[in-house]
Amino acid sequence: MLNPDGVYLGNYRCSLMGFDLNRHWLDPSPWAHPTLHGVKQLIIQMYNDPKTSLEFYIDIHAHSTMMNGFMYGNIFEDEERFQRQAVFPKLLCQNAEDFSYSSTSFNRDAVKAGTGRRFLGGLLDHTSYCYTLEVSFYSYTIGGTTAAVPYTEEAYMKLGRNVARTFLDYYRLNPMVEKVAIPMPRLRPGAEPEASGEMRPAGDTESLAYRRCSAADLINITV
């Protein structure tokens, strides 16, 4: 929660001082945007720590016009990196009936340059994935129907649980689902594989988890 004072006043976008915090990631002020400044410094500290693997950044927002849950991602010149970041939203779509992959988009609009997703997507390396998870203020539709189902507090919490389930699927830790060939992020240069030996660096052909996958592999994933 990066906007506690604004939310306390009933704002859903602006801080206590009237700033849209998700437009000031490029150069947050410790005085005007203290929560952003603190979190940005923490993320940079974690990223520079060789003992820490910072693989995901997801900020969560409510959307005032669109329906369902959906994600925004970044566009990269590296086609493989661009295709890899589509994996998590596709898995989430399998777990959450109110999540819409068709509404998910990847962009680099100039007006979004100050968002956390855009700034950190440019700062972090190819082993990290940055998203914005948007969820409707109002309602969602299911499976091609047009009937709107109003969001409730429980429905929002269920979506949160489904995001957590998707992490289990992504890292192939969910014992309740069939093991499928989901391409996993490679270790950062110089990082050590886990002590269990179950995850090995890229280049080890015996390891599915860290196998280098082409864009075609990712496009053809079905779960």
UniProtKB/TrEMBL annotation:
The active site is at E134 (proton donor/acceptor). Its cofactor is Zn(2+). GO terms for molecular function: metallocarboxypeptidase activity; zinc ion binding. GO terms for biological process: proteolysis. Residues 1-171 form the Peptidase M14 domain. PANTHER family: CYTOSOLIC CARBOXYPEPTIDASE, CYTOSOLIC CARBOXYPEPTIDASE 6. Belongs to the peptidase M14 family. This is AGBL carboxypeptidase 4. It comes from Bos indicus x Bos taurus (Hybrid cattle).
